[in-house]
Structure formats: structure tokens, C-alpha cells
């Protein structure tokens, strides 16, 4: 679902996987709160790396990378308000997927 809306929002679809990787942060925080596990320095470095990576990927779109993306039949022209809506759905779906996968690891 997130990939489809990323395409409609005309953003890099790599952001979907990056946002889903935030599920690892959810697992770390939940493990700390539920199981009282200590968070190590290496884990904090990993979290910062994930957050920086997601931010970098989010900054680049098809236009800024010089990519043309799929043909016009797949990638339709949309107005700015629709792009914002599709972007919101892309991030929401990616976060839900990441948290869902992380939750399955904790249960």
C-alpha cells in the first residue's frame, strides 16, 4: 500500500522500506519498557543511523535525483494537495507496517 501511494505522491519509493525500518526502534523501546532491558551505546548509534538514513531518503524525490520514474500511464499527474495526502498515507502505512512487524517480534 505504501509503495502505491509513494508512486502517486511522486516520491522515492525507497522511503517506504526506510520508514518500515523504524519498527526496530519500536522493538528497542518496547523491550526497554516491558522487559526492562538496558539500552546499549551501540543500539543508540544504530537508532541514530536509522533516523538519519530515513531523513536523507525522505529528502530526495524523483526530480531531485534526475530520475524519470514510471511512464505517465502508471504515474499520473496529481495536484499538490493530493501529493500531500499521498505522502501522509505513505508514511502512515510504512509506520504501521514497521510497528506491526516489531509487535509480532515482541509477542
Describe this structure in words.
By secondary structure, the protein is mainly alpha-helical. The chain has one domain (2-106). It is 72% helix and 0% strand. It has helices at 2-8, 14-20, 23-35, 41-59, 62-65, 80-106. It is elongated, with a radius of gyration of 16 Å. The two termini are 24 Å apart.
Outline:
With 107 residues, the chain is mainly alpha-helical. The chain has helices spanning 2-8, 14-20, 23-35, 41-59, 62-65, 80-106. Helix content is 72%, strand content 0%.
Number of helices in the DSSP assignment: 6
> From the alpha-carbon coordinates, what is the Rg to the nearest angstrom?
16 Å
Count of discrete structural domains = 1
Task: Look at the structure and give the mean pLDDT.
Answer: 77
Approximate shape? elongated
Residues in helix, %: over 70%
Amino acid at each position: 500500500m505504501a509503495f502505491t501511494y509513494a508512486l502517486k505522491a511522486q516520491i522515492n519509493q525507497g522511503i517506504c522500506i526506510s520508514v518500515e525500518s523504524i519498527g526496530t526502534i519500536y522493538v528497542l523501546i518496547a523491550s526497554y519498557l516491558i522487559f526492562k532491558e538496558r539500552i546499549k551505546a551501540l543500539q543508540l548509534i544504530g537508532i541514530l543511523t536509522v533516523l538519519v538514513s530515513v531523513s536523507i531518503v525522505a529528502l530526495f524525490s524523483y526530480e531531485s535525483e534526475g530520475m524519470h520514474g514510471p511512464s505517465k500511464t502508471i504515474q499520473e499527474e496529481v495536484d499538490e494537495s493530493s501529493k500531500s495526502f499521498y505522502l501522509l498515507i505513505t508514511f502512515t502505512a510504512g509506520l504501521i507496517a514497521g510497528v506491526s512487524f516489531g509487535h509480532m517480534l515482541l509477542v
